[in-house]
Each structure stands twice: as C-alpha cells, then as structure tokens.
Amino acid sequence: MQDLKEKGIKPEEIDYCLMTHLHYDHVLGLTGKRENGEYFSIFKNAEIIVSETEWLEMKQPNIRSKSTYWPENWQAIESQVKTFKNELDLLPGVKMIHTGGHSAGHAVIELTSGAERAVHMADIFPTHAHQNVLWVTAYDDYPLDSIFQKQALFEKWRDGSTWFLFYHDAKYHAVKLDQAGEITDSILV
Ligand SMILES: [Zn+2]
Question: pLDDT of 5-46, one tens digit each?
C-alpha cells in the first residue's frame, strides 16, 4: 500500500490482481479488517485472477492445505475472482501459466514488452538461492511437479536477458541468469 501511495495510485484504481497462488503470505493484502471485525476487499474494482485449481482448493482445502487457505482471505473478494485453466493471455504481454508443484494450483507470470521479458516464478523459484532444481520449499505439496516445472522453465528463461522477479528474496528484487546459472544483471533489494 505504501508503494502504491508513493506512486500516487489509489487501491480502487487497480484493474487486475494476478495471484500466483493463494497461500496466506501471498494473499493477505487483498482484504482489510474493519473495527467491527468484518473483512472488506481492498482492490474493490479489480479482477482477481487465479487458476481454477487454486481457487477451488482455497474454498475447500484438504487436511494439509487448510492451515494456509484462510476464509478471511477469500470470502470478501469472491465476487471479483476470475479463474483460468492452463494458460491465460490476460492482456498483450501479460500471461499466466499454471504449473502446480508448490500448490496444486500454483501459476507463474510472464511479462513481455518488445524484446524485454520478466517472469515471476513465485514459490517454485522463491529466492535466487533456489537455482538447484532439486531445492524446493518445505511447503511444496507436490515437490516433483515443482522440480520438473522449474527445469523446463529454466531451459526457456535462463537466457541471460530475462528478468526473474522475486517476492521472498532478501537480497534481490530481480536477477538475469544465463544457462550456467550465473547472474548477468541484478536489482538489489
Ligand atoms: Zn506459497
């Protein structure tokens, strides 16, 4: 919210929220709590985009995932949610791709503009230290899927010119990587 404020953007001016998955640490910012304990949607004019698998699991989590999919994070935004199955070309240059792995409905985001590309692999590549495809988080529900997806996406995107954007990294906002895994450019936190 602070970052939006600094850019002079109001929450109601946001058109889309792209959700890689709905674990509580990624989704808490979609809702606020009033003094009477009621939850409300913060980006009330936005379409909230998420894979269908993720959305269905959030509403009916299993014995393992119920500790991370919280009703207070979805009930107030339910009417704004738009789902997709495998891939979604949301806008020119804005694409979401379902991967599974970290969660059954986990997705990654690809942004292109001219010859430039940035990708957000969210929690299947949570920090720059997770380049070894075998390194997955303890929260991954389907680790083998994370491993295979990361392998395939690295093949495509570790080209030395694609930006990898991070949410969980303490050191980098973004890095470019070559096929050998060397950092060729970076933006520090
Ligand atoms: Zn997660």
Answer: 999 999 999 999 999 999 999 999 999 999 999 999 999 999
Q: How many structural domains comprise the chain?
A: 1
- Tokens at 60, concatenated: 């009916």
pTM for this structure? Answer: 0.95
CA 114 – ligand 1 centroid, Å: 30
- Residue 177 belongs to what domain range? 2-188
CATH number, position 144: 3.60.15.10
CA distances from 62 to 59, 68, 74, 148 (A): 10, 10, 16, 24
Q: How far is the CA of 25 from the centre of ligand 1 (A)?
A: 7
Ligand 1 geometric centre to CA of 49 (Å): 16
